[in-house]
Amino acid sequence: MSVVTIARTGEIATVTVDNPPVNALGQALRQGLWDAVAELDADPSVRAVVLICAGRTFIAGADVTEFGKPPVEPHLPDLVARIEAAEKPWVAAIHGSALGGGFEIALGCRFRVALADAQIGLPEVTLGIIPGAGGTVRTPRLCGVATAVEMATTGKPLRAPKALAAGLIDAVIQGDLLEGAVAFARAAIEQPLPLPVSARPIETPDAAFWLDAEKAVAKSAKGAAAPSRVLASIRKAAEAPFADAMNFERETFMELRGTEQAAALRTVFFAERAAPRPAALRDVAALPLKKIAVIGGGTMGAGIISAIRDAGLPVILIERDDDAVARGLANVAKVFDGGVKRGKLTEAQAQALKDGVTGTTDYEALADVDMVIEAVFEEIGVKRAVFAQLGAVCRADAVLATNTSYLDPREIAEALPNPDRFIGLHFFSPANVMKLLEIVPTPDTSPETLATGFALGRLLKKIPVQSGICDGFIGNRILKRYRAAAEGLVRRGVPIARIDAAMRGYGLAMGPFEAQDLGGLDIAFLQREGARAKGQDVAETLGDILVRAGRKGQKTGGGWYDYVAGDRRPQVSAVVAELLRGQVAPETGMTEDEIAAVLVGEMAAEGQAILDEGIAASPADIDLVKIHGYGFPRWRGGPMFASRSRI
Ligand code: 3HC
Ligand code: NAI
């Protein structure tokens, strides 16, 4: 079947695009639209054309799978120009998403109308490129330069009502989109037509505007190349004739398309989409998830509950006693109240989210839940006791999950009558924000239980990654090696502050030492002490020396750095230098690039060991873990990608 079909309703023709799954602009679609313009221009009975899409969305953009290959005609900028120059005005009728090339097609149309829940945007920077078919040149002609800069440098889409207010679309359609768009077209052809977008004027902000914008973009891009390039392209649009700006944009697009950053971001894009539906589980039905319980309302429990409420499901919270129930509910309320403060939620929405959580100490309340997620203290005895109770009260098919970070899930499940419905679901803090969900089956976990873990990941809009059982699973195991390697550099005489600066320069939000100061050095210390108490041979770390001296991080006024009260900025510490004297070699001249190469290399080496042991299924899975759980820069593709390609 053709991806483009034409129908006529009197004077208004309808061009329908049907290219599942997301109507991406592959060659066949570009050719189909090209031919449609010619056919409808040649038909004297047609006065206007409505462009509409079948399926879940309007045209979602260029076909990203074509980016690694040479471009094939008709090229997208030519197609947009062809639609814009059509003798009959085209009306883009948008539902779902009009993104990137999809929005550029809409910009070629004389009018744009959209359903209220539709979104439009220029997400190209998230793929390491910039718009390649006029996005940076036409968009500011509709909404002004500042809004275009915001859209294109962040890649964040706008919902239809905001797009309407910004001048990016002409109407929000209530009810049936096709009917509404046809009615819009009928009315529009009775009026004088507006200029095509390319012929409209554009404002020219002064040099100070661009300087400010460049500074802001460089700060937020943290090393990604595309955001500043898209800014330069919008500037060109504001300062040069239309055709010159189009050439400038296209050249930049073609250049960036072939870069390592773009390859990294494309790889991550497809890995993220593959992760929630692993091929091995394609034929396994997940169990329904309608009601979930969480045991423990501390840091993690409250975050997990918030994530489940955000997905619209009711939650039961079980705590140790009534006071703990109240504290747990207050922890959850704090998350939603924070949403109100930041303007993300109304009071009423926050209240409704809170109302969906029932707190109790009574395990009988769990008789009909579909899943239980345990997030109590990290102590094997406490966890085992919890699962013994769960085994007694829950339905035999209810999935029972632990959020343990380091304990062996097999030991936790030992007391369960039917361990096939047991699984590890390892969330990351804050659990309502962080996208990563490590899914840790035991040898007894059934395929249905595993599939239900992934179903939960999809429901909560997480990036689920399966991990085998080992100390720290995928993410924390690599973290441990990374931190040990960073300490190794300190021992070799590399200053702590230079290591942190190197990793920030590499694109992480924080270096390894300032991150430990924020989270607290005591957690890992206690873990090592626990292992030592069990007779394991765990070498004394530099972190141990600091904790023994009372330096647990920001919360104690100092860790690897000193902190002045009320100020989170780390200050190089003479006390630490003194404490570590004798452990540390004289200062070396290692550069920041060399430091980052060593530390990322260590992460990748641990990742390789994890692959060799079958703990992770693919390098892409490891990269997703580091990007979505540990703030590894997305544009570097993750440690495995980066160490292969050396970006
Ligand atoms: N090209 C190729 N395949 C794409 C694609 C694209 N632009 N966008 C999505 N897909 C594929 C996905 O890989 C997935 O494939 P799978 O089913 O085999 O795993 C399938 O389409 C469905 O995608 P999602 O799971 O993401 O579907 P959702 O319904 O959740 O989301 C969406 C729909 C919001 C459109 C989302 O897919 C999306 O954001 N897509 C990317 C949009 C984008 O970045 N467009 C810009 C491209 S660059 C460009 O246009 C350059 C131009 O300026 C020249
Ligand atoms: P926390 O100490 O903040 O919360 C634990 C909660 O469990 C407390 O509210 C406590 O009252 C409750 N609790 C203890 N025993 C209970 C019992 N028998 N029945 C019901 N409730 C009980 O701990 P946190 O940080 O939330 O950690 C919970 C689990 O999540 C641990 O296994 C931890 O390893 C894991 N985890 C923690 C992460 C973090 O960053 N804090 C990240 C990922 C996992």
Cα-atom Rg, whole angstroms? Answer: 28 Å
Distinct small molecules bound, one entry per kind = 3-hydroxybutanoyl-coenzyme A, 1,4-dihydronicotinamide adenine dinucleotide
Mean pLDDT: 96
* Order of adjacent strands in the largest pleated sheet: 12-11-10-13-14-15-16-17
User: How many beta-strand elements?
Assistant: 17
The major pleated sheet works out as:
8 strands, mixed
Subunit structure: Monomer.
Main location: other
Pfam families: 3HCDH, 3HCDH_N, ECH_1
Keywords: Fatty acid metabolism, Isomerase, Lipid degradation, Lipid metabolism, Lyase, Multifunctional enzyme, NAD, Oxidoreductase, Peroxisome
Characterise the protein shown here:
The structure is a single chain. The protein has 647 residues and is α/β, with parallel strands linked by helices. Helices cover 47% and strands 12% of the residues. The strands form 3 sheets. An 8-stranded mixed sheet has the order 12-11-10-13-14-15-16-17, with helices on both faces. The chain has a 6-stranded mixed sheet with strand order 1-2-3-4-6-9, sandwiched between helices. A 3-stranded mixed sheet has the order 5-7-8. The longest helix has 21 residues, at 592-612. The relative contact order is 0.07. Residues 21-22, 24, 56-57, 60-65, 76, 97, 99-101, 104, 123-124, 127, 131-133, 135, 270, 273-274 line the site of 3-hydroxybutanoyl-coenzyme A.
Can you describe this structure in just a few lines?
This protein has 647 residues and is α/β, with parallel strands linked by helices. The chain is globular, with a radius of gyration of 28 Å.
